[in-house]
Give the backbone structure.
Amino acid sequence: MPSLPDMNTPEVADLARREAEANPNHPAAPQPDAGQEAFFEALLRIGDSTLILGHRVSEWCGHSPALEEDIALANVALDLIGQTQLWLGLAAEVEGQGRSADDLAYLRDAWDFRNLLLVERPNGDFGHTLMRQFLFDAWHHELLKALSASLDPRVAEIAAKAGKEVAYHLERSSDLVVRLGDGTAESHRRMQEALDALWPYTGEMFLGDDKDAKVAARGIFPDPASLRAGWDATLRHVLGEATLQIPDSPFAHKGGRQGTHTEHLGYILAEMQFLQRAYPGASW
Amino acid sequence: MAAAPHPGVEEVWGWLSEVPDPEIPVISLTDLGIIRDVAWQGDTLVVTVTPTYSGCPATSIINLDIETALRARGIDKLRLERRLSPPWTTDWLTESGREKLRAYGIAPPIDGTAADGQLAGRISRLIGAGGNLAVACPRCGSTHTERVSQFGSTPCKASWRCKDCLEPFDYFKCI
């Protein structure tokens, strides 16, 4: 993040706005949409990822291998959905079009979603679900650490709140990945297969585009690539303890953060959005 | 006609200390540490509340309970505000709240043991039930206990059991 404020830091923006209000024809009057579109996109990228993963994990409710794990998965899903309300609530506020967090969650179609492809992967077996969770948690934890130093105080306070919950998620998924990876021959085989299958979906977490560059320049969001070193360190440590082999392929599926999704997202949305689509505005 | 004087904020704090947490009714909202401020702004009473967990389903019930309790005391103009920062921590649980939890069968949080995601050097000790904590059984007091699950019946608890008296119990996890 830059050490010097650029033209879009809050204080400078406030000054410009006051000046523009005094004289609407002033050349320094900010464009109504200046930089907000990239900010909105950045909030969707995190909020949609927590929403879709929260929904995926909630699919385990009532199906887990043990009651305690069922409760744990449901609680992780609940934390993620709670965080989604904060992120998409802020996204709606930044967009300023009168939409709510619920409107964004229930009334957009697949191409408007900005979640990582990783989180829309089907659950697979319990080990597969936990490996996906670990790969995500390790990244999520790094992202929230960076975001709690965001120059936008609204972003920083959501990140500080969510960061505590995610630190707990990361410790849980790390613990279970080690236990299953360094467990029986069967559990080890399944965890290695899960890691190999999910690996090509991890590279996207660190690939920035022009929108990322805009919010990074304003010190609101970090450059995605800057999260890689911390994530790598967590993986080396935990997967090493788990006796699992980190794949060395750099190949990465990408596009989720730009709205190009796998077929799996459509099925999630069909289930998640059905009620609001069939009975608009229904509440209980 | 002159308006009746406002009840003092100390009195309002006293009323709020009688509003039970909807999920763990043995402790009050003030025991839980989620009431962050009580203040008059003109003739409007403003109560600032922070959520425990961002997805805690009790949040809206808590707001409703606060409103109901204060309206019953004759407060007409009332506004509830949400404050996220600083984020809620179990360090804010009062001493009497911790005692009430223990008497109810829930082990209170052990301060300073919140997850920080810094796993290096700790993972080996995390392996195996119990993690790195010595949680005392609220029934018999033994610390010969083990963790069954990192989560429990509400977002703020984990499931444990005592290896001496064999009692399963909830641990109010540290955050």
Q: What stands out?
A: The two ends of chain A are 44 Å apart (CA to CA). Chain A has one domain: 34-245+255-278. Chain A has eleven helices and no strands. The CA atoms of residues 143 and 227 of chain A lie 7 Å apart.
